[in-house]
Amino acid sequence: MVADRINRLEVENFKSLVNFEMNLPKFSCLIGLNGAGKSTVLQFIDFLSQLVRGDIKSWLAERKWKPADLKSKLTKKVNIEFCVRFCNEDGEPAGRWEAVYNPTKNHCTKERIDLLDFVLTTTSGEIEVFCTKPSPPQGWKDWKSQITFSYEGSILSSLKEDLLPQSILECKKQLAEIKSLDLLAPEHLRQRTRESSGTLGLGGQNLASFLHEMNESKRLKLLSMLKKAYPRLQGLAAKSLRSGWKQLEISESYQEPDSSFLPVMTTEARHVNDGMLRMIAILAELQSENRFLLFDEIENGINPELVEFVISMLVDAKQQVLVTTHSPMILNYLEDDVARKGVIYLYKTAKGVTQTIPFFSIPSLAKKLDMMGPGEAFVDTNLNKLADEIASMPKEGE
To answer: Which H/E stretch holds residue 275?
Structure first.
């Protein structure tokens, strides 16, 4: 049984995430007051991906952080501990990854990947991989060895893939193919680029090259999706310039008065409006092979009449998607069953730690949802008083 997606996070000592737990459906929308920890959750999930990619130093540099910035200032602990749980496409448990990350050493000092058929552990400078099935796959032999090399992040970033069983490789791929665009900014999206990494940066850097490297069928599908939002759009191209530079251009058609002639106007990215650039980046990522997409304040810069279109695309995406928002409009575009499962409320306790609860599992909100739309219920709620209601709710098992 292969892991299809991440369905639960348990985190200790990552910024404001102390004794933090959160379930993750296929589509999740985080809401809460400013400073509640919504962006921190996105950053932590992106951190998980960087651990298995093995390039924490570059990731920290891109965010202008130091290793010490990762651990919480609310505890005296040094290490960051976490458990990531996976489920299959039917929602049944498919395994977990537990680890202890030491910011000083810049790698996980202890890990356990516990799947239904194989277990990988690292502790006390040793790696062990063993099969839990009564009948191991043909040719497989459990193995153990000393760690005699240095690495960043997770041990998965450095082990030869041909040594590992398929289920552990799939687990690694699931984590490596998390993509965060939580710092999307028009100034990055407009840039001419010549990198050939095939990926977008946190702020949308490298968009022109990303589109240039996209295959024709995906580019046509992207254009078709964009035309639904921008009917005048005729083309989307990454034009090649000198010295390998790429420049994003769009073409639009406008009918002249009293004429059937449709002139086409081409516009460079530096003159394209912010909302369209964000839309291009978001929809382009839906064409990628990444499995989990993260977007902060998804409504930023996008015309209100196009927000419903964006949310519809994200809810129906093949990927797992997590967004944050301050806009009740986003919630109003969700079906009630999607809202019940996917709208997650984040808040801080009196001690400053981030906690989470499904928004519509709060009794007053569940009652409102019977009479109002999700967004209307959100607007009709004083978020400053919700923590008191949550505190008065019976704990699970009581």
So the answer is: helix 274-285
pLDDT, averaged across the chain: 92
Give the strand pairing for 233-240 and 178-180.
unpaired
Burial bucket for residue 96 (CB in 10 Å: 0-12, 13-18, 19+) = middle
CA distances to 234, 274, 311 from 253, rounded to whole Å, are 7, 19, 26
In the sheet with 264-268, reading across from the earlier edge strand, the strands are: 233-240, 246-253, 264-268
Cα 320 to Cα 240: distance, rounded to the nearest angstrom: 33
How far apart CA 160 and CA 258 sit, in angstroms, is 67
**What is the pLDDT at residue 64?**
93
Pairing of strands 264-268, 246-253: antiparallel
Query: Of 4, 8, 232, which Cα lies nearest the Cα of 98?
Result: 8
Residue 275 CA to residue 186 CA, distance in Å, equals 8
pLDDT band at 304 (very low <50, low <70, confident <90, very high): confident
Provide the 8-state DSSP code for 136.
P
pTM for this model (two decimals): 0.93
For 236-287, write each residue's pLDDT tens digit: 999 999 888 999 999 998 766 565 666 788 999 999 999 999 999 999 999 9
Q: Which of 124, 123, 130, 69 is nearest to 98 (CA)?
A: 123
Per-residue confidence band for 195, with pLDDT thresholds at 50, 70 and 90: low
H/E stretch holding 375 reads helix 374-379
CA 63 to chain CA centroid, Å, is: 16
> Distances from the Cα of 45 to the Cαs of 38, 60, 106, 300, 372, in angstroms?
11, 14, 17, 21, 32
* H or E segment and range at residue 145: strand 143-146
pLDDT digits (tens, 9 = 90+) for 11-32: 999 999 999 999 999 999 999 9
Indicate the SS3 state at residue 228: helix
Q: What is the DSSP letter of 255?
A: P
